[in-house]
């Protein structure tokens, strides 16, 4: 007769087969429409600036301060992002992750609608600022929510869906902009630029509708001492059909609950990031990563792509098609990242991305320096090709981690605030580069790219050398990577599920006793 498996064998087998349910994927995709709202709102300015009707309506084709105004239109989106990011961290801890995702989508809806109805440049900038506030609340809380509902072994894949939807927003905005450019010959041509901005309301509606049906983060419920609700979410999302006893879900939930019981006793102020060296290190890593992702040139190329292509001698139609193709490449290659993000250590994965971006940017800069203004079409085409290869490297290796890696670094009681710090850093970096780019391209030209190259290679070296690998690790155990063993209440490997007695059996590390509970919720 075959011997029944022991409790330890049941637990180990379930740990190896962590669930990857279609409902979790669908919920993730539903909430990720918030990321698409950000992507569309952030990217639509690129093709809007390429629309002759917009430039003419706002007087930017004749205004001597056009470069400064264009810089302000881009930068104020990210100024709004700072306020949206800071408020979203506090609101998500107080009212829940879902409430902030839906509220931010509503704010973007209103801001995009009123941007489309703007009658002067001042009004346009004001509502672009509001759109930025809502957009950055989305890309702060959506990846945080995904990190908190995903099983450890597939967390990278699910979190990378956020990056894919950011690119969905980017590429949609670009092709909508191209389509409306070709429609400028109709009688409404003078106002045709309003259409693409108004369409930015669509992903907001989808986000609100879909998020209504997604579950709240179980870790948020535990922060609010609502263990029953948290267990229902974990049991629903982290159980398999061949696991009727919910072995993995029970072990994971027990670890979450024990950890959150402890973390609720800790200080949750921003001062903690300065008091404890390990928290300070985490904050520097998350802020450094998001700053360098923007400083690699990603946003400058995205927002000023039409200007870059015109500078290479291409016409308006070609520049808009290049911009759309560039963002289409970003979307297509971000899908590749889904299949490899959890196969490589996080530092290697991100380090490869920065190295690829640095190498292609170096080649692109050399071609620009030597052939800009020339009639060598082959060299100019090569310059454009390097920009396409650059975005492939960025989208595969950096688009996803630029948002979700920060959320993996922090304990639950500080995760929202930690994500806030990372996104504020991203906004500050965006303001610096977007505000300076128009003037820099006019004054120092191709030399502006040297800043991107230097920062990109420095980021690659630092990440490969210093950043920890959070892949496949429960969020409750990340503290150990920073030497904070005293902050880890229990390790998943110490949890044993006894299916015969319906009990959670815990072998406490470095202790001789065994702890038994009859329910993961008790």
From TrEMBL:
Residues 27-471 form the Major facilitator superfamily (MFS) profile domain. InterPro entries: MFS_dom, MFS_sugar_transport-like, MFS_Sugar_Transporters, MFS_trans_sf, Sugar_transporter_CS. It comes from the Eukaryota. One of its GO terms (molecular function) is carbohydrate:proton symporter activity. One of its GO terms (cellular component) is membrane. The chain crosses the membrane at residues 25-46, 66-87, 99-119, 125-146, 158-183, 195-214, 283-301, 321-341, 348-372, 378-397, 418-436, 448-465. It is a multi-pass membrane protein. Keywords: Membrane, Transmembrane, Transmembrane helix. Belongs to the major facilitator superfamily. Sugar transporter (TC 2.A.1.1) family. This is Major facilitator superfamily (MFS) profile domain-containing protein. It comes from Exophiala bonariae. The lineage of its organism: Eukaryota, Fungi, Dikarya, Ascomycota, Pezizomycotina.
């Amino acid at each position: 007769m075959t011997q029944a498996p022991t409790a330890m064998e049941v637990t180990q087998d379930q740990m190896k087969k962590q669930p990857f349910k279609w409902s979790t994927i669908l919920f993730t995709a539903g909430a990720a429409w918030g990321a698409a709202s950000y992507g569309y709102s952030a990217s639509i300015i690129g093709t809007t600036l390429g629309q002759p009707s917009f430039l003419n309506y706002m007087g930017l084709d004749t205004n001597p301060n056009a470069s400064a105004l264009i810089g302000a239109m881009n930068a104020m989106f990210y100024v709004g992002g700072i306020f949206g990011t800071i408020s979203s961290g506090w609101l998500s801890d107080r009212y829940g992750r879902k409430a902030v995702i839906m509220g931010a989508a509503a704010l973007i809806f209103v801001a995009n609608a009123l941007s489309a109805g703007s009658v002067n440049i001042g009004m346009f900038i004001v509502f672009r600022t509001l759109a930025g506030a809502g957009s950055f609340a989305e890309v702060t809380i959506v990846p945080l929510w995904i990190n908190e509902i995903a099983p450890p072994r597939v967390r990278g894949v699910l979190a990378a869906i956020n990056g894919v939807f950011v690119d969905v927003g980017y590429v949609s905005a670009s092709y909508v902009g191209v389509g409306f450019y070709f429609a400028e010959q109709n009688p409404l041509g003078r106002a045709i630029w309003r259409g693409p901005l108004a369409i930015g309301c669509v992903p907001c509606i989808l986000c609100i509708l879909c998020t209504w049906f997604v579950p709240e983060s179980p870790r948020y419920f535990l922060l609010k001492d609502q263990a029953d609700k948290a267990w229902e979410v974990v049991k629903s999302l982290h159980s398999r059909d061949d696991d009727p006893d919910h072995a993995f879900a029970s072990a994971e939930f027990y670890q979450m609950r024990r950890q959150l019981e402890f973390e609720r006793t800790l200080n949750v102020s921003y001062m903690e990031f300065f008091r404890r060296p390990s928290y300070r290190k985490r904050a520097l890593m998350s802020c450094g990563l998001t700053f360098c992702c923007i400083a690699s040139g990603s946003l400058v190329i995205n927002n000023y792509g039409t200007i870059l292509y015109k500078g290479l001698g291409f016409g308006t139609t070609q520049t808009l098609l290049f911009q759309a193709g560039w963002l289409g490449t970003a979307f297509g290659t971000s899908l590749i990242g889904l299949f490899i993000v959890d196969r490589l250590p996080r530092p290697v994965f991100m380090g490869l991305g920065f190295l690829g971006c640095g190498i292609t940017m170096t080649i692109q800069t050399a071609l620009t320096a030597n052939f800009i203004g020339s009639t060598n079409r082959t060299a100019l085409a090569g310059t454009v090709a390097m920009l396409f290869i650059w975005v492939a490297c960025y989208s595969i290796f950096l688009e996803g981690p630029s948002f979700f890696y920060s959320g993996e670094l922090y304990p639950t009681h500080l995760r929202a605030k930690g994500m806030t710090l990372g996104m504020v850093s991203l906004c500050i970096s965006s303001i610096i580069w977007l505000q300076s780019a128009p003037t820099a391209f006019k004054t120092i030209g191709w030399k502006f790219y040297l800043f991107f190259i230097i920062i990109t290679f420095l980021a690659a070296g630092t990440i490969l050398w210093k950043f920890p690998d959070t892949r496949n690790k429960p969020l409750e155990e990340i503290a150990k990577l920073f030497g904070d063993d005293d902050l880890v209440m229990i390790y998943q490997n110490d949890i044993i599920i006894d299916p015969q007695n319906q009990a959670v059996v815990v072998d406490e590390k470095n202790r001789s006793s065994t702890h038994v509970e009859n329910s993961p919720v008790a």
